[in-house]
Design brief:
The chain has about 300 residues and is of the alpha+beta class. Helices cover about 40% and strands about 15% of the residues. The longest helix is centred in the last third of the chain and has 19 residues.
């Protein structure tokens, strides 16, 4: 729902999985036409990771795939740019133990020069030394929160999903987050937190290189989709300084493009009612582990 509202009327509103209705309505002829149109060797990238010799892999690839003929690839129309941001607030109810607030920002895609700054900012927000942690968790407004970037080539969203402490008004949480973001933009990025965020990003890249699947994903996306060496992404992050970060953050984080509020469904609460948190779930945990009995 948040993605759909952030990119309303644009193909970016859909994930790569597409629409369930389209999958349900597809027939054999549709699938065969799609396969014949796009599954061609000149539209594919083979990534091999592991303890292998390049010459052996090139020889094996030639042996198994060279006989498959190339063919024309369907021409795809350029994606229209996303429309103006309407800044909606979405309210939903669900069977969930506590309320959630998702402050979502539209950010540039992976090929944009600002991609590194906007994605590294998620690590800055998540740092337990940040003002966000102090004003949300240590202030007892939130149980926890998670900041992460969901990006593709040409567009993305940075989500800050806040798990609201039971009994706390979701409006207070939203205001605390918004005030903290405004102060962060006004005061500028903390150089120490930026350095820590860059280290965190570098650590994630090292972990990916230490994994066969992670290495394959990293090189497959960078070389096969983005069209460049993954080391270019590392260099872009390493080159970030406070001035570049502050300029990018003011462009993209002045206001959330969408705020999603999930409120737990409780007895007597109709969908969409009392969404300001006055009837939020209150739980003293006395009847649940570890304070209460464990039922096996």
């Amino acid at each position: 729902a948040v993605r759909g509202a952030a990119f309303a009327g644009s193909p970016f509103a859909r994930t790569a999985l597409g629409e369930l209705a389209d999958v349900a309505a597809a027939n054999v002829a549709d699938l065969r036409a799609y396969y014949k149109g796009y599954y061609r060797p000149n539209n594919a990238t083979l990534v091999v990771t592991g303890d292998v010799r390049p010459a052996d892999m090139f020889a094996a690839a030639s042996n198994y795939f060279a006989a498959i003929p190339a063919g024309p690839i369907p021409v795809r129309a350029p994606l229209p740019p996303p429309g103006p941001i309407a800044h909606p607030t979405l309210h939903v109810t669900a069977d969930y133990p506590n309320a959630l607030v998702d402050c979502a920002y539209r950010i540039p895609g992976d090929l944009d020069p600002d991609a590194a700054a906007t994605q590294v900012f998620a690590n800055v927000i998540s740092n337990t030394r940040s003002a966000f942690y102090r004003n949300l968790v240590l202030s007892h407004l939130a149980l926890s929160y998670n900041a992460y970037a969901d990006t593709a080539l040409h567009a993305g969203i940075l989500h800050v999903v806040i798990s609201v402490r039971p009994g706390v008004d979701t409006t207070r949480v939203r205001q605390a987050f918004r005030t903290t973001m405004a102060r962060s933009l006004a005061q500028g990025i903390d150089p120490d937190l930026l350095a820590a965020a860059k280290v965190a990003g570098a650590r994630e890249a090292v972990y990916a290189r230490d994994s066969i699947s992670g290495l394959g994903d990293r090189y497959g996306y960078a070389l096969g989709v983005e069209g460049h060496d993954p080391a270019d992404d590392d260099r872009a992050v390493d080159a970030l300084d406070p001035a570049a970060m502050n300029a990018a953050l003011k462009r993209y984080f002045a206001n959330p493009c969408v705020v999603g509020v999930l409120v737990p469904r409780t007895a007597g609460m109709s969908d969409g009612a009392n969404l300001n948190g006055s009837d939020a779930v209150r739980d003293d945990f006395s009847n649940r582990p570890p304070g209460g009995p464990i039922v096996l």
